[in-house]
Amino acid sequence: MRGEMSGTDIKSLSLEELTGELESRGERAFRAKQMYQWMHIKGVESPDEMTNLPAALREWIKERYDFTVLRSVQVQESQTDGTKKFLFELPDGNVVESVWMRYKHGNTVCVSSQVGCRMGCRFCASTLGGLERNLLPSEMLEQVYAVGRATRERVSHVVVMGIGEPLDNYDNLVKFIRLLTDGNGLHISQRNVTVSTCGIVPGMRRLAGEGLQITLALSLHGATDEKRRLLMPIADKYSIAELMEACDEYFGRTGRRITFEYGLAGGVNDTDQDAEELSALAAPRRCHVNLIPINPVRERDYRQSNVHRIQAFKERLERRRVNVTVRRELGRDIDGACGQLRRKRNIVN
Ligand code: SAH
Q1: How confident is the model at residue 42 (pLDDT cuts 50, 70, 90)?
Q2: Is the dihedral of CA 41, 162, 86, 88 positive or negative?
Q3: Secondary structure of residue 23 in the 3-state scheme
Q4: Nearest residue CA, atom 21 of ligand 1?
């Protein structure tokens, strides 16, 4: 069934699994490697393009496996910074969005991990219609490959910060990361992959033990349980103390600094006291704080902090020796806030 792990979804198979499949048909191992390269390095849209494979083998693949390809149904390009936002149609007709951003350090794709989301964060557009289903590893990979096909540029960084809660789709997420960073595939460096979570503690702890060198970003948004509960229902389930323990475990086991994401909403979580409380969490830790001016969403009544407040908030953190940056707002003119494009389309259609 679509949306569940499916043995017949060929792009979700590791090279070892693919080799096993082909060997059971009596094929030699190098055929699996060729096929894997077509799918994961060249990003072909059909087995027909695998020109160094025998035609009979290509036909066998088409009959036997799902060959997941995403179709771009809408692209918006920012007039100010070149950011591109893609709306992709999945094989079952659902749509998700992915964003392509150009930074000094390389081209980044922001990937969705679910169709919709069930976390209910009160400032976020992605969760308004609830969760539809999980994305397969292949459907996450295809977002990266399809953006690469469209832009004809190399992707060096991937952030799982699009629609959905990645740790609510844990197994598919980890499989996706292993395929994405595999030396036989596109081979994106693990250090260039970031997974952002609203703070599912058991998932964070499990991720710490995967032996991966990826960056974990925690969407904090409030520095006390009370404040966080105003913004994020998940805060009713896990306390900040538990979150900090999980972050410390992640750093302890991987040596990777945590990123704390903190969206500034005017008059809600942007006072001097909020900055001091955030410093108390961040200063003792090897972490990085990313301040995000909240992107106003039509259905939500939060507004952005003004530029002076953002600056003052940042300076307070700096005085406490916290490593802090303010996120550049790329693609603001094209519904940059997560989930807005998909939502618009679903309402219009
Ligand atoms: N579910 C994951 C990843 C997806 S959201 C998470 O919660 O981290 C990616 C980031 O965008 C999160 O930090 C999220 O809190 C933030 N975000 C969501 N809506 C936003 C908005 N309207 N303005 C600014 N940031 C937003």
Answers
A1: very high
A2: positive
A3: helix
A4: 295
Residue nearest to atom 14 of ligand 1 (CA): 219
Residue nearest to atom 13 of ligand 1 (CA): 219
In one letter, which amino acid is 166?
P
Look up the pTM and report it.
Answer: 0.94
pLDDT at 295 over 90: no
| pLDDT tens-digit map of 298-328 | 788 899 999 999 999 999 999 999 999 998 7
pLDDT digit string, tens, across residues 177-201: 999 999 999 999 999 999 999 999 9
> Is there a catalytic annotation at residue 287?
no
Place of tokens 């991987």: 254
For helices 170-181 and 137-151, give the axis angle rounded to 10 degrees. Answer: 40
72, β-bridge pairs: 88
Q: Which of 98, 118, 124 to mutate to test the pocket of ligand 1 (most atoms within 8 A of CB)?
A: 124
Sketch out the chain's domains with CATH numbers: 8-66 (1.10.150.530), 71-348 (3.20.20.70)
Catalytic residue among 97, 142, 165, 261: 97
Q: How far apart are CA 22 and CA 30, in angstroms?
A: 10
Question: What integer pLDDT is reported at residue 244 of this predicted model?
Answer: 98
CA of 193 to the centre of ligand 1 (A): 17
